[in-house]
Design brief:
The chain is of the alpha/beta class. Helix content is 36%, strand content 22%. The strands form three sheets. Strands 6-3-7-8-9-10-11-15-14-13-12 form an eleven-stranded mixed sheet, with helices on both faces.
């Protein structure tokens, strides 16, 4: 079998040496033109004059001037409700085969986002490119013979009229190429189990039957799965069960908050590769080992635009002003937060996905995710993004030698004074006052706006430490375990009251 691994690795290396990449900027221009041409006879394309946009001297500029920004509600009410009702050629030719259900991190009500056959093909193509990029990570040939554990949502999709619907990880797993099925674990049968606890228990029972070389999934749920496997087999680390585990492909959220807790259940280092697969498409993946940044998929079914992340542009509900400045890939700068706007082959147009990103390398189109537009804590001018919060918490982990994989925070008014009230998920026993003081100092170092706010209207920081399992139980009670479910990092006051009541009830 070592020979097979060598053959596969050489084939990947050869493919990468043959395939030449168009510059990201030029690729984006071509993608936009292709999408506009394909959709010009849809209801959306006719309404906004795609034919005339294509005739413009500057197609990118004409596109941005002709079409407003759309958040999910606007896209759904104005256009996708007709798609859901079964009408054809609304925002993309024909009808979608699937709808991706996404409750995101902000509520119980699922969004229903069209997933067309063109998007399935785009996701598959991007996945193949990501596999090809593994040749950059100096992995041994035998890695390419090992099996891959993909822990997503159930592939037992729901029928709703003429469509199938489920979370995007379940949709993509149900469409894996035939040649990959021999590598894919836990396999079709187990992946169809809808109950997450039952699925993980079954994985634990079958774990020693598989030779897992790579894991793929959201860090919080992946960690719980590995702990269940370790517990079931009464061993110390996951490598006692899967000794050839070498790669973890993270997705959905940043891996850094989970890095320390992951190391506790490993007996040797593994290669961590970040990806950015959302319900709306496969947006980016880490292409090389000497960075934690991800390369935008600029040549395959998605057109990107970028709005500078300025408080004046952001509305109360996390959407953006229609007159906000917008930039193309050729105009962005490094180390500046941008609101990400996408147009896709699923018929999302100038769509606010809800994430903020920053470029670490413009020429390579490499980014990091810095937060969510709705998870921006700006009460009394503190201007804290999730990225700044994560940085401060990594400082606490180092200072106290602890692990803080989960957190949530809200701005709360107490006796006419504003406080940032934090709940930190940690198993450590450290005085809350010490954590509060240390976190306050770390945030002052991470963000000058926060430091100014603390000297004026922001009275202080209050920290409550709880077990990380509290966060997972909250998600289970409010949404669903596993899959694409992620914890909301910043809560509004009303939701925070519900959270505190839930914590006290445990």
């Amino acid at each position: 079998m070592a020979l097979l691994g060598s053959i596969i690795k050489r084939a990947i290396d050869l493919r990468d040496s043959i395939v030449s990449e168009t510059s990201p900027v030029e690729a984006q221009k071509e993608v936009l033109k292709q999408m506009l041409d394909t959709a010009k006879d849809t209801s959306f394309g006719k309404y906004y004059g795609f034919k005339y946009i294509l005739e413009a001297e500057n197609v990118q500029k004409a596109f941005s001037e002709a079409i407003p920004f759309h958040d999910y509600t606007k896209m759904k009410v104005d256009w996708w409700d007709r798609v859901i009702d079964g009408m054809e050629d609304i925002t993309w030719p024909g009808k979608p085969s699937y709808f991706a259900l996404s409750s995101g991190t902000t509520g119980k009500t699922s969004k229903r986002i069209p997933v067309t056959d063109d998007m399935i093909n785009a996701i598959r193509t991007s996945g193949i490119k990501q596999v090809g990029a593994l040749s950059n990570f100096d992995l041994p040939p035998n890695f390419f013979e090992k099996e891959i554990m993909m822990l997503g949502s159930s592939t037992d999709l729901n029928e709703r009229g003429e469509f199938l619907e489920g979370e995007i990880s379940g949709i993509t797993a149900s469409n894996i190429p035939f040649w990959f099925q021999g590598y894919y674990k836990p396999g079709v049968e187990i992946s169809r189990i809808d109950d997450w606890d039952e699925r993980v228990q079954t994985i634990a029972e079958r774990a020693k039957e598989w030779d897992i070389g790579a894991l793929s999934g959201i860090p919080s749920w992946m960690e719980l799965m590995m702990k269940k496997v370790i517990e079931f087999h009464k061993v110390d680390t996951i490598h006692d069960v899967w000794p050839n585990l070498q790669v973890y492909t993270s997705g959905g959220v940043a891996f850094q908050p989970y890095e320390k807790s992951f190391k506790q259940i490993l007996s040797k280092p593994i290669t961590v590769i970040d990806t950015y697969l959302a319900s709306e498409g496969f947006l980016a993946f880490q292409q090389r080992p000497d960075t934690t940044s991800m390369k935008l998929v600029t040549d395959n079914g998605i057109y990107f635009e970028f709005v500078p992340f300025k408080p004046d542009y952001i509305l109360e509900d996390g959407s953006i002003h229609q007159d906000a400045e917008v930039l193309t890939l050729s105009e962005v700068k490094e180390n500046i937060d941008y609101v990400l706007i996408i147009s896709t082959v699923s018929g999302a147009w100038r769509y606010l996905i809800g994430d903020t990103i920053a470029f670490t390398d413009v020429e390579k189109a490499e980014i990091i995710i810095t937060g969510r537009t709705k998870f921006f804590l700006n009460v009394v001018g503190s201007q804290l993004s999730v990225n700044k919060m994560d940085s401060a918490l990594r400082e606490l982990e180092q200072q106290f030698d602890i692990e803080i994989p989960e957190f949530t925070v809200a701005a709360v008014e107490i006796d006419n004074e504003f406080y940032h009230c934090w709940y930190l998920g940690t198993e450590a026993s450290i005085d809350n006052e010490k954590l509060s003081e240390a976190l306050d100092n770390a945030l002052k170092e991470a963000n000058k706006n926060y430091k100014v706010a603390r000297s004026k209207a922001l009275k202080g920081v209050k920290v409550t430490a709880v077990a990380p399992s509290v966060f997972y139980e909250w998600n289970a009670a409010n949404k669903k375990k596993g899959g694409q479910v992620k914890m909301e990092r910043v809560m509004k006051a009303e939701k925070f009251e519900e959270w505190e009541t839930f914590v006290k009830s445990l």
